[in-house]
Specification:
4-stranded parallel β-sheet, single chain, 6 strands, alpha/beta, Rossmann fold, 12% strand
């Protein structure tokens, strides 16, 4: 899985490992954090490897995915989680920031999906792809036009991949988190802004990374074998 060293990605890696999966924890810069996740998995009796590559670099992705398949004996599940957020009002949006968002959030998912495709096709009906989008990609948000565009693109990618891969029994779905308690959220949503946000969420709280991880684990499981092209919303009712 990509972006597995912290936050939602870390929770997904630990949850999948707890279900018996051998997990490849991808990182771009946080090598120590990725290795700590692997050590936690191995300490619980699981199997994990840390694999460093930048999802925006297609050649590095190809090499990284090959290494994962070689070391773990194949690839059955791909979780495209790596992403960044750069906020700005549209009139102040910078081309270089939009390009970075596109390169990591959208092109990164495409690079990884393309590189993993040959291995997923061998897995046939056991093959699963789960892409992480966002409630912002579905409903938009002031100051997040660039980010929202990339996350909306993930939904289009998911649905198109679902049609392409369905003939081999491979499912492709997306999980759309609302506001989740991570380092990124803690830094950007504080004080009055946090109180105002909580008033918009019908369940009255910010979600936890483990709740997203459980949704991903379900879509990656045999129990979800007849679900494809779906966007599973985990947002506390923020968008219904």
């Amino acid at each position: 899985m990509t972006g597995g060293s912290r936050g939602i990605g870390r929770a997904i890696a630990l949850t999948l490992a707890g279900r018996g999966a051998a997990v490849a924890v991808n990182f771009a810069r946080s090598e120590d954090a990725a290795r700590e996740v692997c050590e936690q998995i191995e300490g619980a009796g699981g199997r994990a490897i840390a694999v460093g590559f930048d999802v925006a670099d297609a050649a590095a992705v190809n090499a990284g995915v090959k290494r994962v398949a070689d070391e773990l004996g194949g690839l059955h599940v791909l979780v495209n989680n790596a992403g960044v957020s750069i906020d700005a009002l549209l009139m102040r949006a910078r081309d270089e920031d939009f390009q970075r968002l596109l390169d990591i959030n959208l092109k990164g998912a495409l690079h990884c999906s393309r590189a993993a495709a040959r291995y997923l096709l061998r897995a046939r009906a056991r093959g699963r792809v789960v892409n992480l989008t966002s409630v912002v990609g579905e409903q938009g948000n002031t100051g997040q036009a660039m980010y929202a565009a990339t996350k909306a693109g993930i939904i289009g990618l998911t649905k198109s991949m679902a049609r392409e891969f369905s003939g081999r029994g491979i499912t492709v779905n997306a999980v759309s988190p609302g506001f989740i308690e991570t380092d990124m959220t803690a830094a950007s949503v504080q004080g009055d802004a946090r109180d105002a946000l909580l008033k918009q969420i019908p369940l009255g709280r910010i979600g936890g990374p483990d709740e997203i991880a459980e949704a991903v684990a379900f879509l990656a499981s045999p129990a979800a074998g007849y679900i494809t092209g779906h966007v599973l919303r985990v947002n506390g009712g923020l968008l219904i």
